[in-house]
Here is the input.
Amino acid sequence: MKSRLQAGEANALKYKSSLDGLLAILKEEGVQGLYKGVGSKLMQSVLTAAILFAGQRRIYEMTKKVSIHFDLCQCPPYSES
Here is the structure.
């Protein structure tokens, strides 16, 4: 429902409220209408999770190198003046 209201003026003006939109979708399209577009959103979430999972180790190693560098150079801690 939220995505239909945010999709654009033509769709947003079709419904008076969220409840009206929900009832209209159920009446016109049935329960399947509520799940329209779920597949693409699910695919987006899965791909995002896969990318984050794959990059997690690299990010950890990079931050560890930076941490070790600051420990070795014994740089003073950052402070705002």
